[in-house]
Amino acid sequence: MTSTTRSVELRSEGDPQGEWDADRCAQLASNLIGNAIQHGESTSPVECALDCTSPDEIVFSVANAGSIAPQVLPHLFDPFRSREEYRAQGEGLGLGLYIVEQIARAHGGKVEIASGANNRTVLRVTLPRA
Questions:
Q1: Is pTM beyond 0.85 here?
Q2: C-alpha–C-alpha distance, residues 24 and 47, integer Å
């Protein structure tokens, strides 16, 4: 197993106040950042942004260099989907993004993904403030 040092950058703007389960939101952020570190290109930073400029919702996005294969995208949030790929390496159960989606839905929010353009992947979580 190799160890690399990755830079994680955070940009935030606006008022981050809202009514959410803080522990679940921390888990959501941790899963997204961990996924970007694990699967993104190791030579580029993970870029996190918290946009709280809307009075009705906040948007948390995590971007990294690298693309997800088009045939994988429709199944990205399926539980255990990636387990077979990484079991030999001892890397996770394939539940991280599934959990992210479930936490977002439980808060009335949604998760979107864009991958491929300019060799970048961006996962974007939108949550209503209340």
A1: yes
A2: 21
